[in-house]
Specification:
InterPro entries: CWI-Assembly_Regulator (IPR051648), Rcpt_L-dom_sf (IPR036941). The chain is mostly beta strands. Helix content is 0%, strand content 43%. It starts with 8 loop residues before the first strand and ends in a 6-residue tail after the last strand. The chain has a 15-stranded parallel beta sheet that branches. The protein has a three-stranded parallel beta sheet with strand order 7-9-12, with no helix packed on it. The radius of gyration is 18 Å and the shape is globular. The protein has no helices and 22 strands.
Length: 206
């Protein structure tokens, strides 16, 4: 669906499986009714809506999951176990609670301008993971062991704590840049290998 400027609600109470979801420029859309919950879709793109939540979309797996420019969206809580191409949550509500409680692996992850982010079961990222201009002060990755390419934190001005004590290797660049409140890089006790550059800028005390 694209450019349906007066569509305010979407009701498909029996829908549980779909090939893809692509909603672009639906500025009046505020309500979803997916009573059975959509658990299967290969790709999801939701951009420029008036939604405050994605209630009823609870995918288990996806190739791509892209949620962007939904300025009233304040929660993304999805049961994804893996994302084989790219997971991206960007430019939504400034206090967005971004939670992926079951996500174990993904190929790429980008989180931008979120109020919080949670990845309690994430163990592996095949390519890159980036956190850019977010509004949270702390994030932890209790199960993360490997990042295949870059691991980046850039422009998160409130960030003071990052913990990934089981992380063993980063295949590419390991970056902390322009995180003005971040001073202690002491949450990576198991890190043994960085295959690319270590790009840390700031004032660090530990």
């Amino acid at each position: 669906m694209q450019s349906l400027t007066v569509l305010s609600s979407l009701s498909m109470p029996e829908l549980s499986k779909v090939g893809s979801i692509s909603w672009t420029t639906l500025p009046a859309l505020t309500q979803l009714t997916f009573t059975k919950k959509v658990t299967e879709a290969s790709s999801v793109l939701i951009t420029d809506t008036n939604l405050s939540s994605l209630d009823g979309i609870n995918l288990v797996t996806a190739k791509t999951f892209n949620i962007n420019n939904n300025r009233y969206l304040n929660i993304v809580d999805v049961a994804l176990g893996n994302v084989s191409e790219a997971l991206s949550v960007e430019f939504n509500g400034k206090s967005l609670n971004c939670s992926f409680p079951n996500l174990m692996w993904a190929t790429n992850i980008t989180i931008r301008e979120a109020g919080s982010a949670s990845f309690p079961k994430l163990s592996s990222v095949n390519n890159s993971i980036a956190f850019i201009q977010n509004n949270f002060d702390s994030i932890s990755f209790p199960e993360l062991e490997k990042v295949g390419q870059s691991f980046a934190f850039n422009g998160n001005t409130k960030l003071t704590n990052v913990t990934a004590n089981n992380l063993v290797s980063v295949g590419g660049t390991f970056q902390f840049a322009n995180n003005t409140a971040f001073q202690n890089i002491n949450g990576f006790h198991s890190l043994k290998t960085v295959g690319g550059s270590i790009d840390w800028s700031g004032t660090f005390t530990k």
